[in-house]
Design goal:
Helix content is 59%, strand content 7%. It is of the alpha+beta class. The longest helix has 27 residues.
Length: 241
């Protein structure tokens, strides 16, 4: 059609990154096509495109929309929601200003408290460090369980009847739960401590978007084990030198 705007979308990322998964979920839910550009080695060989597109943090994900770069997963999801609007599916963020502010608040809580403490547990070098991090993770899950009850108002998702911003933010972290359970015996959500969130995970898994975007459990665990062994070998080599 004459005058129709052409959208060029590129996503720089890695398939294992929960932050990249968030963006993929948002793009899928909006029905947007994009070029997926996989960064092979973020530790030793970042692409020139990544360095140019995100010169401050030099990390993924980066969404390039008609030549302009947007960085940081939560900001990218909000950008997708605002840039493509109602023409591409339901809004992620609530229309009410207060509810929208609360969604952003809890999204920050997910990364700053839940994710941060879970990562500390996985990286702990002593049993004491691990126990303290797991305690903090459990407390964050308990708080988020209450937040889900408040935000969902008895409906299936944080966003109500359909997936919203918080569902996308937390949904991207589901693969980390595979890793935590496999390597640390740490399952984020269970029927005893967080029955609402455990049920939410099952509903989220059943979504077509989740089936299409979330990586397979075995593949995620195998890749994490491969990287863990590589880090251990590098550390051993450094020590011997």
């Amino acid at each position: 059609m004459a005058g129709e705007r052409v959208e060029e979308l590129k996503l720089l990322g890695t398939w294992t990154s929960p932050f990249v998964i968030r963006v993929k979920l948002a793009l899928w839910l909006k029905g947007l096509s994009y070029e997926n550009i996989e960064e092979d080695d973020l530790y030793h060989n970042k692409s020139e495109l990544l360095l140019k597109s995100n010169p401050v943090h030099k990390q993924v994900p980066v969404l390039i929309h008609n030549g302009k770069s947007v960085c940081e997963s939560q900001l990218i999801v909000q950008y997708i929601d605002e840039a493509f609007g109602a023409d591409h599916g339901p809004a992620f963020l609530p229309a009410d200003p207060y509810e929208r502010a609360m969604a952003r608040f809890w999204a920050a809580y997910i990364d700053d408290k839940l994710l941060a403490s879970a990562l500390r547990a996985g990286r702990a070098t002593t049993e004491e460090e691990k126990a303290e991090a797991l305690k903090q993770t459990s407390a964050a899950v308990e708080t988020l369980e209450a937040a889900f009850e408040q935000c969902s108002k008895g409906k299936p998702f944080f966003g109500g009847d359909s997936v919203g911003y918080l569902d996308i933010v937390l949904g991207g972290l589901i693969p980390l739960d595979y890793i935590g359970e496999a390597f640390c015996g740490m399952k984020l959500f269970d029927h005893t401590n967080s029955p609402l969130l455990e049920a939410w995970v099952q509903r989220f898994h059943a979504l077509d978007a989740a089936k299409d975007v979330l990586p397979e459990v075995d593949r995620v665990v195998a890749e994490h084990n491969k990287r863990k062994q590589a880090r251990a070998a590098a550390a051993a080599a450094a020590t011997s030198n």
